[in-house]
């Protein structure tokens, strides 16, 4: 499997994670319903973490394959992709926030705010879709 095919496989996995998250998003009537279901909270948090990790993995793989500058941290992965014209300036802040959220959920899990997770679930899944489209567009153009 060549490098671009690995990225395409990761895009398929991202699509699957987003399908799950969207089904939960559409079924949830309120923040209160979300906070009362510990099993759902754990599943959504993990699925969001996996989705962000997939985005970072795709970015790092693309950077390595193309020989672009090495990112200093997770946020910088998206900065490099912006510098190389893969993602737009408009999408960059949302992706940087994804990296911050990933760091919170992995390293500072005791401070996870249910309202923040719920807001991401309800309002920011389209950012993942926009990223996947940008990556696919880039792969088709090269």
Fold topology:
Blueprint: H1 3-27, H2 31-35, H3 38-66, H4 74-83, H5 92-107, H6 114-123, H7 125-141
Helix pairs in contact: 1-3, 1-7, 3-4, 3-5, 3-7, 4-5
What is shown here, in short?
The chain is 79% helix and 0% strand.
Structure report:
With 142 residues, this protein is mostly helical. The chain has a single domain (3-141), classed as bsu32300-like (Four Helix Bundle (Hemerythrin (Met), subunit A)), CATH 1.20.120. 79% of the residues lie in helices and 0% in strands. It has seven helices and no strands. It has helices spanning 3-27, 31-35, 38-66, 74-83, 92-107, 114-123, 125-141. α3 packs parallel to α7 and α4 (74-83) packs antiparallel against α5.
């Amino acid at each position: 499997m060549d490098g671009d095919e690995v990225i395409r496989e990761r895009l398929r996995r991202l699509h699957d994670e987003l399908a799950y998250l969207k089904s939960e998003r559409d079924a949830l009537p309120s923040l209160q319903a979300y906070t009362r279901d510990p099993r759902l909270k754990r599943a959504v948090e993990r699925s969001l973490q996996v989705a962000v990790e997939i985005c970072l993995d795709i970015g790092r793989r693309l950077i390595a394959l193309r020989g672009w500058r090495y990112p200093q941290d997770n946020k910088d992965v998206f900065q490099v992709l912006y510098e190389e014209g893969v993602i737009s300036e408009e999408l960059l802040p949302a992706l940087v926030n994804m990296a911050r959220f990933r760091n919170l959920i992995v390293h500072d899990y005791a401070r996870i705010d249910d309202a923040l997770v719920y807001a991401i679930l309800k309002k920011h899944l389209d950012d993942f879709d926009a990223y996947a489209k940008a990556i696919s567009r880039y792969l088709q153009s090269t």
